[in-house]
Amino acid sequence: MRLAKYLAQSGVAARRAAEVMIKEGRVTVNGLIELRPQTLVTDEDVITVDGERIRQQEVKLYFLLNKPSGYLSTVRDTHNRATVLDLLKDKQDRLYPVGRLDLNTSGVLLLTNDGELAHRLTHPRYGIKKIYRAGIKGIPGKKALDQLLNGVEIDGDRCIPDDVILLKTDQEKMHSQLQITLTEGRKRQVRKILAAINHPVYNLERISFAGLTADSLSKGAYRSLSEIEVKRLYSLVNL
Ligand code: URA
Q1: Does 101 contact ligand 1 (Cβ within 6 A)?
Q2: Residue 186: CB within 6 Å of ligand 1?
Q3: Judging by beta carbons within 10 Å of its beta carbon (0-12, 13-18, 19+), is residue 3 exposed, middle or buried?
Q4: Which atom of ligand 1 lies at the shortest distance from residue 185's CA?
Q5: What is the distance in A from the centroid of ligand 1 to the CA of 26?
């Protein structure tokens, strides 16, 4: 990239002003003053303006994917299995999923290259709300639902959902649909707590993450977050 453009994209100054700075001898590339705005530079070059090191600002991207089941929530799989990034077509640059959904869990998954936001959204301190809809075997009675609400021990830790709603029951097929809200994010948490009360999950979908839903998206489709949505996420995690 041309030096003047590099400075402009780094937020130093507008392109024209950056050209002037370069011609005034205020810019160095790898320790030498560079007077030509058209000189080509890369991220590997050490560039300073008035003695201060400049780094290229990465454009921040935020996507909401309606993850289908059968895709891994990892950036790359050693066994070459399909990952959520395969669904994002040409937008794969340095994006990674915010937290994880199991291979066979579908629903709302955020992807971004904003490391600090991703870190905070998955940190237990911020108690970000995740709502799941689970198809479970059997029909839980009051006792099982109370057991869930009072907390179930998994892997030695008590897990207390924020809310549990029995949405539907099917006496004939002997299965039910449950909505469960969590503010923790442990591995396979929903499957584990429901297995622990003898109502194993046969279908799991995350219908909301931090208040974002995939309402207008079919499975496998994604969209960019709006500026307002990103701002809201920032405020949820005190950024
Ligand atoms: N809990 C699970 O069991 N699986 C998920 O994918 C997410 C939460």
Answers
A1: yes
A2: no
A3: buried
A4: 8
A5: 54
Q: Which residues are catalytic?
A: 102
The secondary structure of 23-86, three-state, reads HCCCEEECCEECCCCCCECCCCCCEEECCEEECCCCCCCEEEEEECCCCECCCCCCCCCCEHHH
Residue 177, pLDDT score: 98
- Domain annotation for the chain: domains and CATH numbers: 3-54 (3.10.290.10), 62-125+212-236 (3.30.70.580), 129-209 (3.30.70.1560)
Distance 114 CA to ligand 1 centre (A): 23
Residue 58 C-alpha from the chain's centroid: 17
Among 212, 210, 208, 224, which Cα is nearest to 121's?
Answer: 210
Assess contact for 86 and 68: CB atoms under 8 A.
Answer: no
Q: For residue 226, how many other CB atoms are within 10 A of its CB? A: 10
pLDDT of residue 5: 87
Residue 182 CB–ligand 1 contact under 6 Å: no
Cβ(105) to ligand 1 under 6 A? yes
Strand bridging mode 157-159 / 152-154? antiparallel
Average the pLDDT over 71-85 and give the result.
88
Distance separating alpha carbons of residues 112 and 94, to the nearest angstrom: 8
How many whole angstroms from 173 Cα to the centroid of ligand 1? Answer: 24
pTM: 0.81
C-beta atoms surrounding 223 within 10 Å: 14
